[in-house]
Amino acid sequence: AQTVTQSQPEMSVQEAETVTLSCTYDTSESDYYLFWYKQPPSRQMILVIRQEAYKQQNATENRFSVNFQKAAKSFSLKISDSQLGDAAMYFCAYRSGGYDKIIFGKGTRLHILP
Amino acid sequence: DGGITQSPKYLFRKEGQNVTLSCEQNLNHDAMYWYRQDPGQGLRLIYYSQIVNDFQKGDIAEGYSVSREKKESFPLTVTSAQKNPTAFYLCASSTLAGVTDTQYFGPGTRLTVL
């Protein structure tokens, strides 16, 4: 069975600095998708970024980018120029290519220090 | 505006009572999902439905039931058989199952058993 592991329960970063959240996953499949979701205090889950496993190029969305290392089964999220509004729980998630069930990690709580 | 609505936002239930959580979407999505979120546990899949009048159990279906009579609606009933129902419940939807589209989430319902 696939698993998703986020080894950092909490992290802190100074405003305007860069922070990287770690995620590793375990799968025997070659076709899959990876996601980072943000859950602010409102608890609304918001998609931050997604990566298709068949794409070698790392996904980017404005200040958010990923470092996708397929062989190492690693999918880290980098947030540049951190802002106070980035404070939230961040969940890494995996979805098999032929099936739409998503498996979530346990989350990393990110604090932004002013 | 297109989106997913969940009601109520907060729900209180006495032990031994069944309660139904509402989830409606106007995104014309085919698939809908119910997740449970507990502190430190991430999201766990309860039930999902890919088409009307069909649904499948997720990882923690015991004590829950669902129906999918309309494409737009996927209500979740928490039955008295659910031993520890106090949690935050999230509904999500996506386009055709098996396609790469992302799951989008509603704002959630906080259920507390008194």
Question: Which labels suit this protein?
Answer:
heterodimer, A: 114 residues, mainly beta, six-stranded mixed sheet, B: 114 residues, four-stranded antiparallel sheet, 11 strands, 51% strand, globular
Describe the structure.
The complex is a heterodimer of chains A (114) and B (114). Chain A is mostly beta strands and 114 residues long. Chain A has no helices and 12 strands. In chain A, the strands form 3 sheets. In chain A, strands 2, 5, 6, 10, 11 and 12 form a 6-stranded mixed β-sheet that branches. Chain A has a 4-stranded antiparallel β-sheet with strand order 3-9-8-7, with no helix packed on it. A two-stranded antiparallel sheet of chain A has the order 1-4. Chain B is mainly beta and 114 residues long. Chain B is 0% helix and 51% strand. The mean pLDDT of chain B is 90.
Span of the ends, CA to CA of chain A: 41 Å
* Count of DSSP strands of chain A: 12
- Report helical residue fraction of chain B: under 10%
The proportion of residues in beta strands of chain B is over 45%
Label the structural class of chain A.
mainly beta
Radius of gyration of chain B: 13 Å
Write the element-wise H/E pattern of chain B from the N-terminal end onward: EEEEEEEEEEE
- Overall morphology of chain B: globular
Report mean pLDDT of chain A, rounded to a whole number: 93
How is the quaternary structure best described? heterodimer
Largest interface: which pair?
A-B, 23 and 25 residues
User: Which stretches of chain A are low in confidence, meaning pLDDT under 50 for 5 or more residues running?
Assistant: none
Overall body shape of chain A: globular
Q: Which stretches of chain B are low in confidence, meaning pLDDT under 50 for 5 or more residues running?
A: none
